[in-house]
């Protein structure tokens, strides 16, 4: 039993603090010095009456001699000691330590508890880094490019005679992969730079929601089948670690459910096979707003899109300030984690022309020059009144041009992801220097 | 008889380099980037060795490895798994599913050739 053992040690410590001899205290409480000696060495239990008498004589409360926190203090101190590399020969005297120095033992136990809490936070952050879709994608891109460059360059160096056609092909591959590597490295630097400096860091609620949706393939089949219990859907989801992210996720589920109700999956799939990627035709056919169609298209199951011969689609939604409130990135069409995107995106053009559907082909600045077909639309959020500012929400759907069948959609506009990583230097929309030209 | 290797890799420049070095070392090389189509090809005409990327569009390298080990005709097929994800959990999963060798990218060509030769011998 820990309590009597500690109590005895405490009594002795308190007696020593008051400068009392054992015999004096024994006399005062009416027991023999030898019996008190046994108690102080934790060999006898203390009756409640005797404990009260001892507490009175020592000028402390009885509770101070038998605190309930003893076990917790011992456990905390023991945990700290076990984690230490120091000589632990004194560990067996832990009862005596916590008994004699309850204050210090409490400090030690609290420090140990804090260390354990911080370790859990580090573990969670590390886990999130490991499973961060942005980081994972950027690293995968870089490692793939490095692998290709290394392997191809080795062939060119090591192989004795290479057919000129193969040689030309390998040279071209190295150039392609070097460009890809440079782009990936810049994106990664940008990402880590921002992640370190931004207070929201990895724990931004929007990122948690996006990480959660990314794991689910940006699709919740439960909603398609009519389940709209948002609380149940967000419960226990590992990415949604904060109240804020769970609240955002519930809002997203409500929006998804309303969109799914307006455009049921089977009807949408059937219509898509007829129209292809033609949001205007779908909006007209179902009598729904254009931006609802954009959202629905980007969040359809991959199999449904495949069935209509369409690739996965990207989606960006921003509010009136241009702040992105939803991002589903598309391979090759990068979206910045923080700050605004490229001012030339139709997403922002749509904010200037509310309720007008926009279609625009974009080409990413830089050597790779990938082409995308985009549709954008901005609409007021909530009621519009005379005396209140109009709050808009703009959506932009992004599809790879070739796969989307967007030929004939006009001349492409060169765009970047954000000014910091954009290679188009002579751009009137540029708001900050590009890190691509540092030192150049 | 010339031995055959099937490379399932969705990065065209990597599969091109692999194809070149393996051909130069006497292998007949088939390449595919499509994991689902690769399964059909594997069952129809099993190669002597499989080089398999872990992260493929549509179907993962783990899924393919699982199918390979579940089929009598391909159960003993030597499989070299390549991955840009060097996480211990992936290696453990690959070993659990019966991978013959697990190699992280970036790899040296000589390293791949050595592994392939060793796997083909056993």
Written overview of the protein:
The complex is a heterodimer of chains A (440) and B (122). Chain A has helices at 2-18, 22-29, 33-40, 48-58, 62-65, 70-83, 94-100, 102-131, 133-158, 164-197, 205-215, 221-224, 230-234, 243-262, 265-275, 279-286, 290-298, 302-307, 346-352, 401-404, and strands at residues 314-319, 324-328, 358-364, 371-380, 392-400, 413-415. Chain A is of the alpha+beta class and 440 residues long. Chain A has three domains: 2-123, lambda repressor-like DNA-binding domains (434 Repressor (Amino-terminal Domain)), CATH 1.10.260; 132-197; 310-437, Beta-Lactamase (2-Layer Sandwich), CATH 3.30.450. In chain A, strands 2-1-5-4-3-6 form a six-stranded mixed beta sheet, sandwiched between helices. Chain B has one domain: Rossmann fold (3-Layer(aba) Sandwich). In chain B, 45% of the residues lie in helices and 20% in strands. Chain B has five helices and five strands. Chain B has helices at residues 12-24, 35-44, 61-70, 88-96, 109-121, and strands spanning 4-8, 28-32, 49-53, 79-83, 101-104. In chain B, helix 2 (35-44) runs parallel beside helix 3 (61-70). In chain B, strand 3 (49-53), helix 3 (61-70) and strand 4 form a beta-alpha-beta unit. The radius of gyration of chain B is 13 Å and the shape is globular.
Task: Provide key terms for this protein.
heterodimer; A: 440 residues; alpha+beta; 434 Repressor (Amino-terminal Domain); Beta-Lactamase; 3 domains; six-stranded mixed beta sheet; 20 helices; elongated; disordered N terminus; B: 122 residues; alpha/beta; Rossmann fold; five-stranded parallel beta sheet; 5 helices; 45% helix
């Amino acid at each position: 039993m820990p309590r009597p053992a500690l109590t005895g040690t405490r009594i002795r410590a308190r007696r020593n603090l008051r400068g009392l001899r054992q015999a004096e205290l024994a006399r005062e409480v009416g027991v023999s010095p030898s019996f008190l000696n046994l108690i102080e060495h934790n060999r006898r239990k203390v009756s409640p009456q005797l404990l009260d008498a001892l507490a009175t004589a020592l000028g402390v409360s009885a509770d101070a001699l038998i605190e309930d926190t003893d076990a917790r203090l011992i456990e905390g101190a023991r945990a700290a000691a076990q984690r230490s590399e120091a000589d632990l020969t004194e560990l067996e005297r832990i009862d005596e330590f916590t008994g004699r120095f309850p204050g210090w033992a409490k400090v030690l136990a609290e420090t140990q508890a804090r260390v354990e809490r911080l370790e859990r936070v580090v573990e969670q952050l590390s886990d999130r880094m490991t499973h961060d879709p942005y980081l994972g994608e950027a690293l995968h891109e870089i490692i793939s490019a490095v692998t290709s460059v290394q392997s191809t360059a080795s062939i060119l160096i090591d192989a004795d005679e290479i057919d000129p056609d193969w040689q030309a092909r390998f040279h071209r591959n190295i150039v392609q992969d070097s460009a890809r590597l440079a782009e990936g490295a810049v994106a990664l630097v940008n990402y880590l730079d921002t992640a370190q400096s931004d207070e929201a860091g990895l724990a931004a609620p929007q990122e948690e929601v996006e990480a959660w949706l990314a794991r689910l393939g940006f699709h919740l089949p439960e909603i398609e089948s009519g389940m709209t219990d948002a609380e149940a859907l967000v419960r226990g989801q590992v990415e949604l670690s904060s109240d804020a992210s769970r609240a955002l996720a519930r809002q997203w589920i409500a929006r998804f459910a309303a969109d799914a109700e307006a455009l049921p999956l089977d009807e949408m799939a059937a219509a898509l096979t007829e129209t292809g990627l033609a949001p205007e035709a779908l909006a007209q056919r179902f009598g729904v707003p254009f931006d609802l169609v954009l959202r629905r298209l980007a969040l359809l199951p991959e199999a449904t899109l495949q069935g209509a011969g369409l690739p996965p689609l990207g989606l960006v939604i921003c509010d009136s300030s241009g702040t992105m409130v939803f991002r589903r990135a598309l391979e090759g069409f990068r979206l910045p984690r923080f700050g605004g995107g490229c001012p030339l995106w139709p997403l922002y053009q749509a904010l200037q022309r509310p309720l007008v559907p926009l279609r625009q082909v974009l080409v990413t600045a830089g050597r790779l020059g990938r082409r995308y077909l985009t549709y954008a639309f901005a609409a007021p959020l909530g009621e519009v009144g005379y005396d209140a500012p109009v709050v808009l929400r703009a959506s932009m759907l992004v599809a790879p041009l070739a796969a989307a069948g967007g030929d004939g959609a006009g001349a492409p506009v060169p765009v970047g992801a954000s000014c910091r990583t954009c290679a188009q230097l002579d751009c009137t929309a540029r708001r900050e220097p590009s890190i691509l030209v540092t030192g150049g | 008889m010339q031995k055959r290797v099937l490379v399932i890799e969705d990065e065209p420049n990597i599969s091109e380099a692999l194809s070149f070095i393996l051909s130069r070392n006497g292998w007949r090389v088939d390449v595919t980037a499509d994991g689902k189509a690769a399964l059909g090809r594997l069952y129809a005409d099993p190669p002597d060795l499989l080089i398999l990327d872990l992260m493929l569009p549509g179907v993962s390298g783990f899924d393919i490895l699982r199918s390979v080990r579940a089929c009598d005709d391909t159960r003993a097929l030597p499989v070299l798994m390549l991955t840009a994800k060097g996480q211990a959990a992936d290696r453990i999963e690959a070993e659990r599913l019966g991978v013959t060798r697990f190699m992280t990218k970036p790899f040296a060509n000589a390293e791949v050739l050595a592994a392939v030769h060793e796997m083909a011998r056993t």
